[in-house]
Design goal:
alpha+beta; 2 domains; 7-stranded mixed sheet; 11 helices; 3-stranded antiparallel sheet; 295 residues; single chain
C-alpha cells in the first residue's frame, strides 16, 4: 500500500493531431456513450481504435458503446485508482512518480500508457512525468493519482476475446474479472456517492446521513444477487473512516469534487437499478433528491 500520491504531467493535443499520429489501440471513455458530443463521436470513429472501454456502469452502457462505435470491440473498465486534475495554482504535492500509469481527465476519454485521452474535448497523452512540490499545476496538465501498490489500474470485463487481447497488451495494468465483479460493487457504493452529492459534497454530512444510502444499496444489490443483503450504515461509517486513514489523497475533499462532476451518471445508475428493484423506496428517494439539485 503506497502512502503517498503521485503527480504526472500529461500533454494536451487535439483530435486532428491524434488522428495524424496513426492508428490507436484503445480509447477509454469516462463519459457515458450517449453523452458524448457529436464531434467527439465523429473524431473517435475517424481514429477507429481497435478497442473502446467504457468506465460507465449504467445499465446497458456497454451495449450502447457497441452501437455508437460499430466495428470496435467494447469492454467495461472498472477503475482501481483515484485521480484528479489539479487546478491552476494548486501545489503539486509530489513525493514520488510512478512508471507507466493511467491518467484521468474531467470528461470524455483517457489513456493507458502513452495512448490517447480527451481533456475538454481534446486529447491527452500520458507522456513525461512531473514532480516537485514547489511547482504550480497548469490546468489540464497536472494529474494527481493514487493506487494501491502492485494492484491493477483497471478491472476489465466483457467478451472473452477482447478481454484476452487487452490483457496480453496491457499486462499488469488490467485484471480480467467476471462481469459481476464490475457491476456489483457500484450497487453498494454509488448510493453513498449520491448521498454525498445531495449533501453538497460534504463528507462530514454524509457520515451523519448513512441510513438512506445503506437502504438504497441493499435495494440495488437484491435484484443482482436474488437475495436480500442488508447494508448497515454503521458498517459504512467504519469503511469511510478507514478510507480517510488509508488513502493519501484528502478523500474528504476529493470525493465531493470528483463525484459532483458526475451527478448525472450517478442519477442514471440509481434510476436503472430502481426499475428492477422491489422495493426501491430509498433508491427512488435518492433519485428525486438528485433531480432536485438540478431543478
Amino acid at each position: 500500500m503506497t502512502r503517498v500520491a503521485a503527480t504526472r504531467r500529461v500533454t494536451i493535443s487535439d483530435w486532428a493531431a491524434a488522428a495524424a499520429d496513426g492508428s490507436w489501440d484503445l480509447i477509454v471513455l469516462t463519459t457515458r456513450p450517449d453523452d458524448l458530443d457529436a464531434e467527439v463521436v465523429s473524431a473517435i470513429r475517424d481514429i477507429s481504435p481497435a478497442f473502446i472501454a467504457t468506465t460507465s456502469q449504467v445499465e446497458g452502457d456497454l451495449e450502447r458503446a457497441r452501437a455508437v462505435f460499430p466495428g470496435t470491440q467494447a469492454v467495461i473498465f472498472g477503475p482501481a485508482f483515484l485521480s484528479e486534475r489539479l487546478d491552476s495554482g494548486a501545489p503539486a504535492e509530489v513525493v514520488r512518480t510512478a512508471g507507466n500509469q493511467v491518467e484521468e481527465t474531467d470528461s470524455g476519454a483517457f489513456s493507458a500508457g502513452s495512448r490517447i485521452g480527451e481533456a475538454d474535448r481534446g486529447v491527452c497523452t500520458a507522456g513525461g512525468q512531473g514532480s516537485g512540490a514547489d511547482r504550480e499545476a497548469e490546468p489540464g496538465r497536472e494529474v494527481r493519482f493514487w493506487a494501491p501498490a502492485g494492484a491493477p489500474r483497471f478491472f476489465v470485463a466483457g467478451p472473452s476475446t477482447a478481454v484476452r487481447s487487452l490483457v496480453s497488451r496491457l499486462d499488469r495494468l488490467v485484471l480480467p474479472v467476471p462481469m459481476e465483479a464490475v457491476l456489483l460493487p457500484p450497487r453498494v457504493f454509488i448510493p453513498f456517492v449520491a448521498e454525498l452529492s445531495v449533501r453538497n459534497g460534504s463528507w462530514v454530512a454524509l457520515k451523519s446521513h448513512l441510513d438512506r444510502p445503506a437502504k438504497a444499496a441493499s435495494e440495488a444489490v437484491r435484484p443482482r444477487l436474488g437475495v436480500q443483503v442488508p447494508v448497515f450504515g454503521s458498517a459504512a461509517h467504519v469503511v469511510l473512516e478507514a478510507v480517510e486513514r488509508i488513502v493519501p489523497i484528502d478523500v474528504t475533499n476529493y470525493a465531493g469534487r470528483h463525484f459532483n462532476r458526475h451527478v448525472g451518471q450517478t442519477r442514471d445508475m440509481l434510476a436503472g437499478w430502481a426499475e428492477s428493484a422491489d422495493p426501491a423506496h430509498a433508491l427512488r428517494e435518492l433519485v428525486a433528491a438528485l433531480d432536485a439539485l438540478v431543478d
